[in-house]
Every structure is written in structure tokens, then in C-alpha cells.
Fold these 2 entries.
Entry 1:
Amino acid sequence: MIIIGELINGMYKDVSKAISNREADVIQHLAEEQVKAGANILDVNIGPYSNNVNDDMKWLVETIQKVVMVPLSLDSTRLDVIEESMKLATNRVVINSTSADEDKMSMVFELAKKYNAQVIGIALDSSGVPLSRDKRLELAVKIVAKAAGYGISADDLYLDPIAMPINVAQAQAREVMESIREFRMLCNPSPNTVIGLSNVSQGTKGHRSLLDRTFLVMAMASGLTAVILDPLDKELMDAMITAELILNKNIYCDSFLEAYRKK
Amino acid sequence: MIIIGELINGMYKDVSKAISNREADVIQHLAEEQVKAGANILDVNIGPYSNNVNDDMKWLVETIQKVVMVPLSLDSTRLDVIEESMKLATNRVVINSTSADEDKMSMVFELAKKYNAQVIGIALDSSGVPLSRDKRLELAVKIVAKAAGYGISADDLYLDPIAMPINVAQAQAREVMESIREFRMLCNPSPNTVIGLSNVSQGTKGHRSLLDRTFLVMAMASGLTAVILDPLDKELMDAMITAELILNKNIYCDSFLEAYRKK
């Protein structure tokens, strides 16, 4: 499972404040803690409050790279901002994200090709979020085909069927899982599949971690290969590690949780 | 999800002792607690230590039926014992179980037909436990076809692909989940699918409940409709309730765990 840590995001107040005040230690602590907890990639998002998006993103990338070695997922709607930061990246980056809209895909895949980046492709377009697995599959096919036109292999894509809040779109959960299964069968090599897990429990009360981790385990049974989550949620990570074990990705030992974390 | 409570089983020392000494209150307490925790069916197994299997089983059935109304799963290798107890049952019973062996199936389905019982059909035969989904499917087809010959509908069958201990047969977990998916597609109406959940963590140390509940949630994502488990394991039941919610079987509310338990 590819774990994309979500915590360096300016929508969180402490992160936003750390960005404004250039408090490197706050960001670096978040980076180190997430990697220690099992993140393979760190998402980097300056959030909605930045007054200087380009400098803020570049500062984040440089600050994070001083303490951890993992690839970054550059999360912005501004492609010029992503490109400036890519130039500073010491690893291959993930562009977060493109929709299935032609114009957006052209720009994102052009950039991905130029910098040999991976791309998160979200199964939605300007007509909105699809509510059926058929529509999701149609959009996923568009993304895979467009990427192929730029020489980008499907296994450098992370296709996101869009996990929706359970309290708003309860019937969609099952559709999303079937979409994950279908996306994996689209081509060979298979595209990665990814969800933004915290969407599932957004706006719910009382049982957020339980909802998220149960959804994650079900999505993993359906073939999910990557996930954007809070790696500091220990129970969530325990569930993820156990699901990987059941899927035979790691060899069983009595202390399998500890063994995974020591890796 | 059909929850079959597993706790009234003479392999547990306190149950075995209660059976020998005719301590009705011990058995009735276990029956009531399991039903209160969400069991829809109670498994009844006199265990390996009985000196008088027929009387013990009949006493158990009568004792349980004095306090709870749920159907019973009569769990014995002795069909004569099951038949004697069936005569006392106030609800439709589940016969636990038949293999896919012709002789066994003939006897079990004959009995099921006579008493209008449901049947747990285990996907194994005298050649042993199958280690591939293809072999499991072959045995499942045999069971469904044989049952049909006795006029027993597939939705009165619980097909068990045999969940195996993760520390012994780790690669089988994934096969079992695919088998669940395949069994459900065998015919219309679909057969029920069932697993004996505690098998998964048998012989493991330290994380039994975590292994069991993670496996259960994954199996539910694959289409599992029934499970034999310990309904007094609260975290396990929480995971089951949450997975049902995600599968859109109950309507979301913020207190969905409490709402389920009040039903």
C-alpha cells in the first residue's frame, strides 16, 4: 500500500501559521512524524490562506526535503506553482491532480512528461462528480488514454474514483469500491487507485476513525493500491497493516504490527 | 449480515461444565447476552466431552429456547442427534453442516427437506480442504446442485469457503474472498455465504480481534452475508456494523452504532 500523508496542508491552522511565519521546525516535525508512521509520499498543499503561493510552496518543498527523503505529492490547482516546485524536488513528484477534462489533462500530462512525474487523475469532469460506476469508468478510461498519448504509463497514474461523505452519499461507497476493482482491470500494467480517505467521514460525528478505517479495509479488499490519509491515526494504520497482511503482502509473524513499523 | 453466535459450544470449559451439571442459568445467560449483542442465530454444539450427546443436545435446545426466540444452528457431526433436537425446535433450524461429499449431502439434504431446515454447506470433501478458488467453486456448485435436487433453494444454503488460519495458510485469505464473490454469483437467488471467523486468528498471538475484524470487513466487501463469531467482542461488532453502514444496508445517522444495537 502506498501511503500518502495528508498533514502538511495549509487548511489546518497550525500549518497555515507555520507557513506564514516560516516556522520550519513545525513543518519538519510533521514530515518526520508522518514518515516514521509509514507515509511513503507526503502531500504538500499550501491551503487557501496563502498570499504568496509560489514562494510558500517552494519553501515547503525545500523545508521538507531537508529532513525526509520520500517523494512529494504537489497539491495545487496552479500548475505554474507545481512546476516551480518540481524544479526543486530531489525525487520524482506526484502531481495532485488532474480531472478528466481535456484541457486540464493536456496541461498536466505535458508537465508530467517534461519532469517524469506521476499523476493523480480524478474521475470527474466539468459536469461534476459522477454518481455511477459506469460514468467513473468512462472518465478513468479517458485519463488512461490521454496519459498514454503522452507516453505516461498507467502505473504512473493514481486513479481516484472519489470517496464521498457517507452522511451525504451513502449509496456511493459501494459504487466507489466497484470502481476501484474496475479501474485495476482497465489495462496492464494496472493503474494505481487512490482515495482521499478522510472524505468518507467528513461532517460525521463521533466515529470518524472507525468509518475511515473500515472503508479503507473494504477498499483494499477491492484492490486499492494507494491512499491519502493521516498516518498518525494509529488505529487506522493498524487496520491498514492488518489488511495488507491478510492480502499476503507481508509475511505473518505474531508481532506483525511492530515488524511493519520497524521496516 | 446474519450473525451466528458461537459461544454455546462445549469445547469451552465453562459451557462443557454447565452442560454436564445442567446449569441452565449459565447457558441461558450466554444465549441472552449473544442475542442482546446482535446474534440472529445461535450455534449449539455440545463439544467433544459429552457422554450423552443426544440428551445433552436436547437439553441445550430446550434450555436456550426458554429465554430467546432466535433460530438455532444445530452443530454436530451426528445427524441422528440433530434430528432429535430438530423435533424440539420452535423455529426453523440451520443444520451445521454438510461437506460436498455425495453421501453426506444426501443424508443432510434429506433431513433438511423433511424439516424445512437451512443448511451450512462447507466447500470441502473427503480429499481435504481445497486450496484454490477453482476447486472451492467446483465444490460449491456440487452443493447447490445437490440441494436443488431436494427442492432446497440456494438462499436456504450458507456456503462456507473455509477461512483458514492466517499464520498457517496466509495466501488462502485472498482466495477465500474471491470464492465468496464467486459463490454469490453462482445462481439467482444467491446462496448465502458464511465463514467461521475465529479460524482466521487461530493460533496467533496478540492481535486476534484485530485480525478477525479486519478479515470480516474485507469478506463483507466481497459479499459475505453471514458469519459465525463471538458477538460479545464489541470492537468486532463495531466493525461489522460500520461495514454494513458503508454497504448501505442501514441508513446513516451520527449514532449509527447505538441505533443498530437498539434495533
Entry 2:
Amino acid sequence: MKIDGTPYRSIWVDEADGWSVRIIDQTKLPWSVDIVRVTDVDTMAHAIKAMLVRGAPLIGASAAYGVALALRADASDSNLRSALTLLGETRPTAINLRWALARMEKVLTPLTQNARVAAAYAEALRICDEDVATNEAIGRTGLPLLAAHGKDGRRINVLTHCNAGWIATVDWGTALAPIYMAHDSGLNVHVWVEETRPRNQGASLTAWELGKHGVPHTVIADNAGGHMMQRGDVDLVIVGTDRVTRAGDVANKIGTYLKALAAVDNNIPFWVALPSSTIDWTISNGLTDIPIEERSPLEVTTMTGRALDGSIATVRIVPTSSPAANPAFDVTPARLVTGLITERGLCDANEAALTEMFQDLA
Amino acid sequence: MKIDGTPYRSIWVDEADGWSVRIIDQTKLPWSVDIVRVTDVDTMAHAIKAMLVRGAPLIGASAAYGVALALRADASDSNLRSALTLLGETRPTAINLRWALARMEKVLTPLTQNARVAAAYAEALRICDEDVATNEAIGRTGLPLLAAHGKDGRRINVLTHCNAGWIATVDWGTALAPIYMAHDSGLNVHVWVEETRPRNQGASLTAWELGKHGVPHTVIADNAGGHMMQRGDVDLVIVGTDRVTRAGDVANKIGTYLKALAAVDNNIPFWVALPSSTIDWTISNGLTDIPIEERSPLEVTTMTGRALDGSIATVRIVPTSSPAANPAFDVTPARLVTGLITERGLCDANEAALTEMFQDLA
């Protein structure tokens, strides 16, 4: 999508040298757009772990390019295995990471060492291009859900949590794809952006990308989402996901489950947008089978933002003697999900519907 | 309760001069304990409005002392009326404010001007002493609910939202009164403290007061409360309230409703602790009849804390071009409330139970 009128992807190979990988350092957003040049697999692993790149689909694409960078340095079997292990251990929850690495492994392992580098770059680009096409298809699937609320120019109020926008993918986003498509087609869309503590991806990323593309939005505290639904100011909820089980349970950013409960309580549709690569066909019960990443308590006890003098500063917001806990994801049981917005169409969140729509994958 | 071993109330008349009013500036917590001397009604009104004092019971006590300060300057009927109006307009949601002012008006109006100042101080002190006794009774009512989960030294996990502790009242607190009582009686209590965005009263006030009194606790993002319940780490929820309707609907800090939904979904008791002065007998339907204060968007777009150099700094956390909305309270329908912890005992959250327990007030 666009940043101040210029189209971007969130990851691309540098045009000048043809091999280094360019990413936007998302830890610097919204205050500066820093394009980082990544030239080795260790740096890419760090970029994923430290969340310079984040969002399940973008993590997968980044890992794929990480493999390409690793093979460029050393295309041996042992180095391929090392790279797959290193990249696979960067983040525990997103299924796309494992999916992309498995795909790279399958393509590259049979090849001679000489053929591997070019094949790795080609496969990584294919993963990116497919992601863009997939997300555009997700947008087309979701567009009618928004349009149904926007008759005669009526304002369509969508609530979203965290960031499942174009910078969480290669382009378009998942949850935001139908929103961009609705906006670009002239519908009167307005997004309630939940700030999404503790890392504030809503306030710092979703608000930023919607603003840069020109989509009207309002930031609210995560606590306010239920109240907005109670007072009739939300037409539908759309969120992304890091992993969906074959039974339709949805792992997503911590706090998603609370919004699903509120949506059900207020009879508001709660949709989850995802590419089929997010589905983990090996598990059913999200509550017992999805590992939940526990991140640093510092994300809860401190907050980073822009100080009055324009510098980026971190302040402590919890007494120094108080401990904090920081689970990064929660699981929304399928029973609370209105449906899934996928690249193949709308799908009910249950095993029968999922295995029917994705027979070739399930 | 205690600050580092020394017992405090949250509001008191200065012992040296016998008339000025001392409060703890809660906007400075947890980083410094600033005792402010209030000598006139305008300053007290500002202290309530700017939340140097906050929490429904403490707002009522502060307003009562505000009337005393006003009459000390001018005990005329017109000045009494001005003071009641000024103080009554400081905050819209808490019923205790109106309750305390109505009580002061009723006591003071019939008196001669000469008698009013002493009577106002006496009545304000009575309101404070009654609040302490009431909260202690709330603690006794709630204690068995905690004790039931703490057999054989088992850790009792209580989740609370916002601050309904001793500094939200004159002493003991409402939601925290049973917790202090359980802790002081040797039970193994641990509190999940939700940070309570956007003003962070949980992280900055509840964590501070529990820590200063020595109660084990862990701060979590508001988003994490539902997940903690899903994984079995919460035995019960106790929150305070700013207003309860005669039907048992509960207005409390924004986000409370979401935790009630999660508690019901996980079969966890959701208790609301309150003095009967918090009940608004004039209304039934909380969703339609309780005005919800809309506060400054700056509370959402900025965050204040302690910088690395020890100074208190404010950072912006939302892009400057993104608007924000900031409703300060939400309403939890009575159907989601397990029961009310009152100074007279446990009470079901419905009109029949409330009017039976509080026949003299209803």
C-alpha cells in the first residue's frame, strides 16, 4: 500500500545490488521510516526476533529471504540446516514461519549447492508474490462484509486489534485488506484502532499505516472496545491471526479473545482474516495445543514514545518493585468466531467447513 | 493502610493548623508521595477534577471537605450553594460525589452561618470515619470468598482492574479491603493487577499500594486478563464501582465489562465491592441511564512515567495525525455479576435482593 502516495512492499530485494534484502524497521514506526539493509542470516534472525519485522506472513517471507542470505554465504547441506534451525527458533507462535521454512527446505534440499542460491531467491520471491495475491484475494472476500454496512454512504465502523495490515504481510494485509479495498472503492470506512498493549502495534503501526494511506480511524484503549460495541458504534470486528487450528480456534495478539466475547455479547460479527498458510492442520484444540509466547516484562513495565523534544524515550510506568507478566497471545475458541475470511472465500470456523474448503491442504 | 510501615488515610485535616486539608497527590504516584495542603474550595475542586484525588468514596470525602473550606471563607447561603455547584460539576460519573454533597447540604442549610463551619468539618470527618468503617465491613464480607480458595496455604489468585484500594477511599479500599484483610490474616494472596489503560491506575496506584503494604502482586496488560482466566490462573475477580443501579448494573473503569464477560465464560466468580452509598436508587438500566465521562484524547495518545534519568516524562505513543477517543467508564450488566460485596453482606446483583438488603435506602 502507500506511504504518503508512494507504493511499498514491506520486504524486497535491493534493486542496486540484486541480493541484499530491504525491510522497514517497524520498531522505529510511527516516528521514522527506517529502511534497513539485511546482508546475512544472523541479522535476519535478529530482525525477526527483535520484531523489526513482525506479523505472521511477513515473518514467513523474512525467514525465506534469511535462508537465501545464508546459502549465499555457504550453500552446503549443513549450513542450510543451521539456517533453518536458527530462523525456526526466532518466534514460537506464528505457524507461517515453520510453513515458509519447510517450503524452502523442500525446494532447496534436492538441489546441488551451485543451484541453491538462485533457487532460494526465486522461492522467497514466489512466497512474497503469493502472499500479495493471497491478501488481495482475502480483501475481495471480505469487501462485501463491509459494503453491507455502507449503504448510501453510511459510515462503516470496523474495530480491529493489533496490526494485521500491509506491514504485517508483504502487502495489503489480512484484516486490513478488505478495509483498504473498501476505502479505495469509495466506501465510507472508519476504523476503531485498539492500541494493543503492551507493544502498542495498534497505536504505532495500524494507526500509522491507515493514516499514511488516508483511511479514517480513531485510536482507543483496548479497554474501550467492549464499550464501543455496547453503544452501537461498531458494525463488525476484523482481526488477523497467528495460527488457526483445524477446528477453527484462533490464536492472535493478547486481548483478541476479550473482543470476541464482547462481539458475541453484542451480536456483532467477529471475523478473522487469514491466508490458508496460517492454518495448523496438526492440531485441533487451540487452548491446549498452541504454545503462547511469554515475552519480557519490560514490555509491560515500560513504554516507548516520542518525547516533547522529538527524541524517542522510554519511561517506566510500573513501580520498580512490582513484577509483571507478559503473555503475547491468547486463543479465541471457534465458538466465538463468526467466520474466517480466506483467500478462497468465507469459511465457518469449524473442522467440517475448513476441511471442505481446503481439501488439498487438510 | 501502610506506606512502608506507617499507617495513613488518604485525606485528613492538618494537625498543626486544625483546618487545612491534606491529600496525597495521586497524579505523582508511584514515583513520589507528595502530601498537598488544600486551603480553599477552588483548589479542592481542581484536585478532584485533575484527579489528584480519585476513587468514588474519596471523591465524596474530598467534596465534603471542599464544602467545609468554602464555608470557612464565607458561610452564607449563596456561597454554600456555589460550593455545592462547583464541586458537583467536577466529575460526572461517581454517585458518591452527589451523595456526599447532598448530605452536607442537608446538614448545613438549616444552621446559622456561625454554626456552619464547625458542623461542616464535623460532618466531613463523619463521612470519612463512616467510609473507613464501611470499607472494613466490606473487607469482612469479602474475606470468606478469598479464604475459600486458600485452604492449606494454597495461593489465592485474585484479579482486579483499576484502583479500588485504600487510596481510592479514605482507608481499606473497597475491592482491595478483603485482599488486605486476607493478607493481614496470613492467607497466601496474590493479585493480578491490570494496568488499566489509559490512565494506568492499576500499574501506578494499585501496584504501588499493594507493594507498600507488602501484598504479592503481578502487573499485567489489560489484554492479558482473559488469557489468565482461560489458563486457570484466576480464582476470582474483585473490582470496585463508581455507580450501581437499583437493578445491579455496574459502572466502573473502562474495560471492566470485558473482564466480567471473560469471568462468566470461564466460570470464575466476578464480584463487585461497594459501599451502599454507591448505589443510585433513581435508575435501573445502567447502559442507558449512566452518563459516561469522555476524557481527553491526550490520556490515550501519551503516556507518563519515569525516564532513565529519574525525571518524570511524557511520551507520545500515537502518530500525531491520528485522533483518539477516551470513554472513561463502561457498564457491566447485572447478569454478568456474581454478586455484590457490601458493608451489610453479600448481595445478589438484582433489584429484589438490593431492595431487600437496603430497605431503608431503596
